[in-house]
């Protein structure tokens, strides 16, 4: 007799800058250990996040983000941040994949049927050189199908506030079509989320949600463009076994 298929659900959380212990200018829920904040404060904040979502701190996987297109598949807890990578993929239930940002786009991806999830960090450089297609390819290699993948594009610098030189806009547009725009001041700008949405659609991913918040405008979020030095908020995804209970928010996506 064939055993019933395991029912899995992807959970996603995006944090804000409130509720932690970090002192200014990292106040207060900074989750990055590379921006100059007190390491003890970062550790305490990460423990608060783990407690809020109901997972042990050691079940979180963090990255040494370097604005690359490197993708790493993980199958269990990792000691320290995964070196030199900007995307994580797993099939492990209860393993939280975290990406840090403060203007760059975080991308959380899941094929619940295949039990494959991913978290990616897509700044201007990473988006331009193709981090998103790389991570989607890695998911497909593990059994995901584009038509079943759901994507969340996290808070980021919006096109109306992401001003760049005209030559840079043209260069990014060549590599990430759909990202060129004009800012609210009428100057050349980039809307990376627009380019990434187009890239997802071209890959066959149609279930795309977007957190519309602009990090430059929304002071509840960290923004490097608005104020530097500053902290980083986290976008986190993990798989849970439906039969074992919903956990945080009774199965709803939440914001810590």
Q: How does this model look, in words?
A:
This protein has 256 residues and is of the alpha/beta class. It has a single domain (8-241), classed as CNF1/YfiH-like putative cysteine hydrolases, CATH 3.60.140. It has helices spanning 39-53, 124-129, 131-141, 166-175, 192-203; strands at 8-14, 60-61, 72-73, 87-90, 96-101, 105-111, 116-122, 150-153, 180-182, 188-190, 207-210, 233-241. It has a six-stranded mixed sheet with strand order 3-4-7-6-8-11. Strands 1-12-5-2 form a four-stranded mixed sheet, with no helix packed on it. A hairpin with a 4-residue loop joins strand 6 and strand 7. It starts with 7 loop residues before the first strand and ends in a 15-residue tail after the last strand. The model is unreliable at 246-256 (pLDDT under 50).
What's this entry about, in short?
The protein is an alpha/beta fold.
What structural keywords apply?
256 residues; CNF1/YfiH-like putative cysteine hydrolases; 6-stranded mixed β-sheet; 4-stranded mixed β-sheet; disordered C terminus
Indicate the radius of gyration in whole angstroms: 18 Å
The number of distinct helices, counting runs of at least 4 residues, comes to 5
Give the helices and strands as they follow along the chain: EHEEEEEEHHEHEEHEE
Ranges where pLDDT stays below 50 over 5 or more residues in a row are 246-256
Helix content: 10-25%
Under the CATH scheme, which class? Answer: Alpha Beta
Major sheet: arrangement of strands: 3-4-7-6-8-11
N- to C-terminal separation? Answer: 43 Å
**How many β-strand runs?**
12
Quote the average pLDDT.
Answer: 94
Instruction: Could you tell me the CATH topology label.
Output: CNF1/YfiH-like putative cysteine hydrolases
* Biggest sheet overview: 6 strands, mixed
Q: How much of the sequence is in beta strands?
A: 15-25%
Would you tell me the structural class of the helices and strands? alpha/beta
> Which superfamily, in CATH terms, is the homologous superfamily?
CNF1/YfiH-like putative cysteine hydrolases
Number of domains: 1
Oligomer: single chain
Mind telling me which CATH architecture this is? Answer: 4-Layer Sandwich
Shape: globular
């Amino acid at each position: 007799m064939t055993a019933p298929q395991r029912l899995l659900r992807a959970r996603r959380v995006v944090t804000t800058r409130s509720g932690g212990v970090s002192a200014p200018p990292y106040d207060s829920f900074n989750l990055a250990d590379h921006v100059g904040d007190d390491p003890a404060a970062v550790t305490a904040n990460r423990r608060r996040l783990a407690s809020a979502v109901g997972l042990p701190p050691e079940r979180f996987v963090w990255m040494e983000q370097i604005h690359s297109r490197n993708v790493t598949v993980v199958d269990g807890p990792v000691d320290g941040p995964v070196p030199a990578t900007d995307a994580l993929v797993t099939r492990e239930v209860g393993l939280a994949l975290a990406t840090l940002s403060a203007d760059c786009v975080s991308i959380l991806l899941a094929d619940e049927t295949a039990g494959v999830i991913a978290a990616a960090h897509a700044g201007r450089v990473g988006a331009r050189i193709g981090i998103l297609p790389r991570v989607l390819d890695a998911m497909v290699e593990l059994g995901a199908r584009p038509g079943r993948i759901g994507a969340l594009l996290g808070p980021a610098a919006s096109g109306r506030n992401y001003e760049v030189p005209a030559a840079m806009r043209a260069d990014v547009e060549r590599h990430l079509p759909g990202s060129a725009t004009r800012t609210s001041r009428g100057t050349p700008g980039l809307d990376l989320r627009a380019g990434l949405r187009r890239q997802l659609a071209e890959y066959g991913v149609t279930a795309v949600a977007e957190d519309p918040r602009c990090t430059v405008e929304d002071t509840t979020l960290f923004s490097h463009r608005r104020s530097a030095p500053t902290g980083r908020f986290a976008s986190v995804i993990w798989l849970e076994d439906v039969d074992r209970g919903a956990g945080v928010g009774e199965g709803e996506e939440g914001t810590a």
